[in-house]
Amino acid sequence: MATTEPVLVIGAGVTGLSTAVTLAEAGVPVRIRTDERPAETTSAVAGAMWGPALLQPADRVQGWVARTYHRLVELAADDTSGVHLAAGRMAARVDLGDQLPPEALLLPDLRRCAPDELPDGFVSGYRATAPLIDMPRYLDHLTERFRAAGGELLLSPVSSLVEAVEEAGRVVNCTGVGAHELVGDPGVRPVRGQHVVVRNPGVTEYFVEIGAGPEFTAYMPHGDHVVLGGTAVDQDWSRIPGREAGAAILRRCAHVEPLLAGADVLGETVGLRPGRDAVRLEVERFGGGTVVHNYGHSGCGVALSWGCAAEAAELVLTG
After folding, report:
1. pTM of the predicted model as reported, rounded to 2 decimal places
2. Which pLDDT does position 98 carry in this prediction?
3. Are 164 and 158 in contact (CB under 8 A)?
4. Does the annotation list 299 as a binding residue?
5. Residue 211 in marked binding region
6. Is 223 annotated as a binding residue?
7. Per the annotation, does 126 bind a ligand?
8. The pLDDT of residue 3
9. SS3 184
10. For residue 4, what pLDDT is reported?
11. What's the superkingdom here (predicted)?
12. What is the distance between the alpha carbons of residues 174 and 308, in angstroms, rounded to a whole number?
C-alpha cells in the first residue's frame, strides 16, 4: 500500500484519525487538516461503546462493524489505549424478541436478561461483555500512533474541496456533520447528544437503553468516571448543555443504578452526531483529484471506525 504521494485527511474525530492511522501505518505520507483538535470534536464527548449499527447500506455496515469489533478487542489488551471490555445490559421498554442484528452474535457471552435483571419499566434485554471506549484517552492514543507513523496534524480549517484537491491529489473527507457545509450535502443533519460526566461511585457495568426516542438512559463506566446519557435531538445545532436535559439524564440513570444518585458531577458535554439516511463511503472525482467521502455515521462512528477506515484507505489508494 506504500506510496510517496501524500494523502490529505480532513477531520480529526474518530473517523478521520482511524483513517489516517490506517494509511500512515501502511507507509503512506498523510496530513490531517482540521478545524477542531481531536479533544474538541464530537468524538471526544461520546459515551462510548461498540454495538450493532442499524444503518444503511446494511450489508456493508455489518462488515464495517464486525471489523471494528475485532480491532477494539485487540486494543483492549493495551492499557494505554482507552479501550476496555465491560459487562453490562442492553434493555428496552418493549419486547425485543429473538431477532438480533447479526453483529450482536460476535459477543461471545450474549444472553437474554432474566426478568429480575431488568430495571423497573424495562421488559426485555440482553447481557454481554462489550468494548467500552474512554474517548479522550482513545483519541490521544490514535493521535500518538498517527504521529509515531510520521503523520502530520494541522489545526487548519479546509474551506472547500477545491482547496483540498489543490493541496493533495488524494483526499479523504471525514468531516462528520461538517460535510453539510463542506460538500453541500443537505442529507447531513446534526443529531444533538448531551452527556453528564460524574465521578465513579463504584459502577463497573454499563447500561444502554435500546429503541428509545430523543431521551434515553445509558451509562458507561471508565475507571474513575462514568459517562451518563443521553439525548438524540434531530436538527439541533446548539453545543451548549441544557440544564433541564442534564438533570433529566441524572434522574434516569439514578433510577436504573442507585449508586449514581448524588454522584459528583464533573462536567456536561454536547456533541453533534452526523445524522444521514446512509453512511457515505465512496469515491468522487473532483477537480482533477480523487476524494473519498467517509461520513454520515450518525451515532455509530466509533462502532464503524476501523471498518470504514480500512475501506476508505483502500479506495483512496486504488480508486
Report:
1. 0.96
2. 85
3. yes
4. yes
5. no
6. no
7. no
8. 54
9. coil
10. 67
11. Bacteria
12. 10
